[in-house]
């Protein structure tokens, strides 16, 4: 950068006048800005939220990638078949499954243990995409907190309880598809 | 030389090679898909997957006359003038039909099937399959059931290739398996009350191209794509089966046989396959121990080795080398035995070298197909004997050692073990109480280790590199797949340290040295080829290139098993 460059415009800092030098007017200016924001917040500016009392709204909570849940089938059993495809797809290696023979007659394999380290997870949603039976889904629960690392390691029971918590607001993909299909089938009959 | 034309490409095969069209085509780089054919079993040509067009070429006129119908490649011998076409629309349409037919009756439960990832049906679906399912049926009629202790049957997944049935009739010879019912109801089964309980039963899981037969022990333990394969040698008897150990995160999940025509062909027994719990046994020796007045105290490796060396060297220098016995266990690799012998004879050249106890259980068991489980339950008696004889001035066997101790001729001993099972009883171990000093290097606690002044923990065969010489004189290499457990050290490293060699113990270098030092091993100077070397006859039973295939499955890259089965390894002999 050359000082004589024509494209550079040199500006001098303006000298403060008497009022300026007394600091009073800038102080009032600043207070006015604060008061303006205060008033607009009280009126409701559309940006500031009173979290956690006021919950954010999602465009579509069904595609939000928050805490995982393990879906249940129509008999209330865990839907997961312990195929390890989510664990295989997981780039963060946060899913740990122990598969064993299912105690039911219509199923061969089920997860004896299914653990997700929610701290290690990067919420990419690959597990949901990999699942061949729509057993694992990401919910719109985003404000996950815990007092310890151990608390953030979710086991099968906890993941199933997330399902119970969210199933009404966020039905599983299979149910949604069934609902969408229902009127069309009605027409056919 | 016979000339065979595969898809327009001429290849030559030797006059004495008895190849079928699948094998001949593989020489030309063309793979023909198949399910029921297995190089180690008889040909039934029942799966119809390998149908190809064949014909003959008239040598004089060059005219080719083709057969009107497709023929099974597995059943068609490749002779001079045979013409094979594998890529015609007719052949492709057949492959497509066969795949669709099998999949009609298949549950496609790949996500929960243990075979997924190493399944021929999956592989062939991508290569030859009919991409859409035209019939919307989901056959799921039966759950898993046991055919024997080690074998689970998932009847729905079966493609009726009958490999397992032929295996039990032709190789194991017990014939427990059969096909029951007819047509689409056909199923593999056993007679009620006669389960599949022979000592080779685990092999049917390997040769099953789909997930119909799965290993009960491995069932749902791990998805195969997580496993890493490492070539290894079974140490449970002197047959020395070539194996692969499948490991993930330092845990041994399963062992499968690896094709070696000079040792075990495609098979291995259930003892070597399933009885490997000793690797992770909680009682494994986990660090060097020194005996004091109250018991054993833990100590550092460097200190323990100095202590051990001091004790045996004292005996040798005080009484003469002849009175110190260095016991070379038949579970040591050749390299380790060599280093041990070098170390022992380095103390004094006339130190007595002893070939360790050779466990013999019952009689050799020979099966119908020729596979033999040996009574001699150790991998390397032959190699250790040759090394002891080659390097030692005084050589004894185990009974000779016991007698010599009894006679007071031996005053101190260094005993190497590595036996996967209890190998010495209290009475025998009591003989060693007469010794002035006793160093024991082993993997599991034993009555002998209890009597030792210094105990050094060694490693199992899964944790070390090296070579073993089997009962037939075939030397094969094994490589480590697990890290040494606890505070154990690789035996070769222990001896290398005792010899004051710097750096890490490299078995390949030691083998080269051994080849120069002991004439029996002279042929190993250039290393050992994958199929092993016969050190006694100098000749292989069968050249490796004419016999194809392996039944052991995955490699770290998980190529299609079929393509691996047809892999031709060129002999480096």
Walkthrough of the structure:
- The complex is a heterodimer of chains A (189) and B (573).
- Chain A contains 6 helices and 5 strands; from the N terminus they run ααβαββαββαα.
- Chain A has 189 residues and is an alpha+beta fold.
- Chain A has 2 domains: 17-48; 61-182, Alpha-Beta Plaits (2-Layer Sandwich).
- In chain A, strand 2 (95-101) and strand 3 (109-117) form a beta hairpin.
- Mean pLDDT of chain A is 88; it is low at 185-189.
- Helices cover 24% and strands 19% of the residues of chain B.
- In chain B, the strands form 7 sheets. In chain B, strands 16-15-24-23-22-17-18-21 form an 8-stranded mixed beta sheet. In chain B, strands 1, 2, 3, 4, 5 and 6 form a 6-stranded mixed beta sheet that branches. Chain B has a 3-stranded antiparallel beta sheet with strand order 7-8-11.
- In chain B, strand 13 and strand 14 (251-257) form a beta hairpin.
- The longest helix of chain B has 19 residues, at 301-319.
- Chain A binds chain B through residues 81-85, 88, 99-101, 105-106, 108-109, 132-133, and chain B through 109, 111-112, 140, 143-144, 154, 219-220, 223, 225-226.
SSE diagram, text form:
The complex is a heterodimer of chains A (189) and B (573).
Chain A: H1 18-21, H2 24-43, E1 68-70, H3 85-89, E2 95-101, E3 109-117, H4 126-130, E4 136-138, E5 153-154, H5 156-166, H6 173-188
Chain B: E1 2-6, E2 9-13, H1 21-27, E3 51-57, E4 64-66, E5 71-72, E6 82-85, H2 89-104, H3 120-128, E7 145-146, E8 151-153, H4 163-170, E9 177-180, E10 187-190, H5 203-207, E11 213-215, E12 228-233, E13 242-248, E14 251-257, H6 270-274, E15 289-291, E16 296-298, H7 301-319, E17 324-328, H8 334-347, E18 352-355, E19 365-366, E20 372-373, H9 381-391, E21 394-396, H10 398-406, E22 412-416, H11 426-431, E23 437-442, H12 447-450, E24 454-457, E25 466-469, E26 474-478, H13 491-498, H14 507-517, E27 533-534, H15 561-565
Parallel strand pairs in B: 1-6, 17-18, 17-22, 18-21, 22-23, 23-24
Antiparallel strand pairs in B: 1-2, 3-4, 3-5, 3-6, 7-8, 8-11, 9-10, 12-13, 13-14, 15-16, 15-24, 19-20, 25-26, 26-27
Helix pairs in contact in B: 2-3, 8-9, 8-13, 8-14
